[in-house]
Amino acid sequence: ATDAPVLLLGETGVGKEVMANFIHRNGGGKGPFVAVHPASVSETLFENEFFGHEKGAFTGAVTRKIGLFELADNGTIFLDEIGEMPLAAQVSLLRLLQNGEVTRVGGKNTRHVNVRVIAATNRNLEEAIRQNAFREDLFYRLNVFTLNVPPLRERREDIPALAAYYLEEFAGKHRRNKPNLGAKEREKLYAYNWPGNVRELRNVMEQAVILSTEGKTYLALDERSGGVEEGEQPLPGVCGDPAPLRDTAPFPRSFLEVMDDMLAAFPSIDELEEHYIREVLRMTNGR
């Protein structure tokens, strides 16, 4: 519950805006949450969009416009993909962050705004600084508190809850029956590497709701590349249950196959225990 700037790092589609919204809701601010993609605003219109303008400031300015930072007063502004912001716009943003004041285009009065800034990027900003594509002073203004949002392939234990949530959401939205995710479907979800992260999982679940028929669940993963990389292992889980994975997950088929092989060879108790411990460590990614 502070107004300290936050920098969110992570690949496209991991849910950085969801995280930013969560921080805003729990940060104690009373104002709104304003999300904007700075790279979508041209350099010439940056100050107009972010600071606003007065009536008559330029041709076509027939009314006063409140800028995004004023709109977010006492709240949060979320700057998505900050690494794509043009250098000229970075200068204007830095000036605002330093003094907390905005002056509308064509105006004379300066207004103080109390805005928490949460920025997000999928780029390596330190590398961008070395390439003179991002201002170092702006980086240190934004990099007060940094959170790294990991990709979905590194948190496969989240797949069951996310899949169940999206199936419920889209079944209601499209007025369809919620598809059943059986063992075969769950195995596909865990084996897939999710290059598009949570956003891709969301799309796959919506397609499943739309295209599945009674008795057959459609998962648009067969046509996609993105299997588990060498050395990785899919985790077990029950996609229909958002409860913690460790409380609900049955032993996966791979584990039962290992047990069958071991029992067929009549291993010793010590060998059995070692294989068991190794398999559990694999299933929990060493935890």
Write the layout of secondary structure elements.
Layout: E1 6-9, H1 16-25, E2 33-36, H2 46-51, E3 52-53, E4 65-66, H3 68-71, E5 76-79, H4 87-99, E6 101-103, E7 110-112, E8 116-121, H5 125-130, H6 136-142, E9 145-148, H7 159-174, H8 183-191, H9 197-211, H10 245-248, H11 253-264, H12 269-283
Parallel strand pairs: 1-8, 1-9, 2-5, 5-8
Antiparallel strand pairs: 3-4, 6-7
Helix pairs in contact: 7-9
Can you describe this structure?
The strands form 3 sheets. This protein has a 5-stranded parallel sheet with strand order 2-5-8-1-9. The protein is built from 12 helices and 9 strands. 41% of the residues lie in helices and 11% in strands. The protein is α/β, with parallel strands linked by helices. Helix 7 (159-174) packs across helix 9 (197-211). The chain is elongated, with a radius of gyration of 25 Å.
Short description:
The chain has 287 residues and is of the alpha/beta class. It has helices spanning 16-25, 46-51, 68-71, 87-99, 125-130, 136-142, 159-174, 183-191, 197-211, 245-248, 253-264, 269-283, and strands at residues 6-9, 33-36, 52-53, 65-66, 76-79, 101-103, 110-112, 116-121, 145-148. Helix content is 41%, strand content 11%.
Structure class: alpha/beta
**How far from one another are the termini?**
31 Å
Strand order in the sheet with the most strands: 2-5-8-1-9
| Strand residue percentage | 5-15%
Rg to the nearest angstrom? Answer: 25 Å
Compute the number of strand runs: 9
| Total helical segments | 12
Shape annotation: elongated
Percent helix range: 40-55%
Q: Which regions contain 5 or more consecutive residues with pLDDT less than 50?
A: 235-250
Major pleated sheet: 5 strands, parallel
What are the secondary-structure elements, in order, as H or E?
EHEHEEHEHEEEHHEHHHHHH
Overall pLDDT confidence: 83
